[in-house]
Specification:
Distance between the termini: 19 Å
Radius of gyration: 15 Å
Structural class: alpha/beta
Strand order of the largest sheet: 3-4-5
Order of helices and strands: HEHEHEHEHE
Strand content: 5-15%
Shape: globular
Oligomer: single chain
Mean pLDDT: 94
Number of domains: 2
């Protein structure tokens, strides 16, 4: 489950769509009526589920809707993996909140994630 919003996340989605594993795409906007052919095919075969916590009238992603989307994903997730969290950035703040709420968070052991690890994230 991811928002697959950044360039690197879109690249990851592209490769995941070639596999057979289930994927959940969570939008930082409302649902669309039509999706790109690559997504439409995996929607049809049941590999992809697209969800959004927003009404269809929300047509553009913003920093605010991305934040709310991330909060939504954390609420429904049993475990959270964060590859990278910029020091003092929005993701780091969200992860610190999630850790305080008792969510299980794992991350890579890189310098930028050391604060998360010190706060209780499991390093992988």
């Amino acid at each position: 489950m991811s928002g697959f919003h950044s360039k690197i996340e879109k690249d990851v989605l592209h490769y995941l769509l070639k596999g057979k594993q289930p994927i959940i795409l969570v939008l930082a906007r409302g649902l669309k009526k039509n999706y790109e052919p690559e997504l439409a095919h995996t929607l049809t075969n049941g590999q992809l589920l697209i969800v959004s916590p927003f009404h269809n009238t929300v047509t553009r992603a913003s920093q605010n809707t991305a934040y709310k989307r991330n909060e939504y994903m954390a609420e429904i997730a049993d475990e959270i993996f964060v590859a990278y969290a910029q020091t003092n950035g929005n993701i780091e703040r969200l992860v610190m909140k999630w850790l305080k709420e008792g969510k299980r968070v794992s991350t890579f052991e890189v310098a930028e994630n050391l604060a998360l690890i010190k706060a209780g994230a499991v390093q992988i």
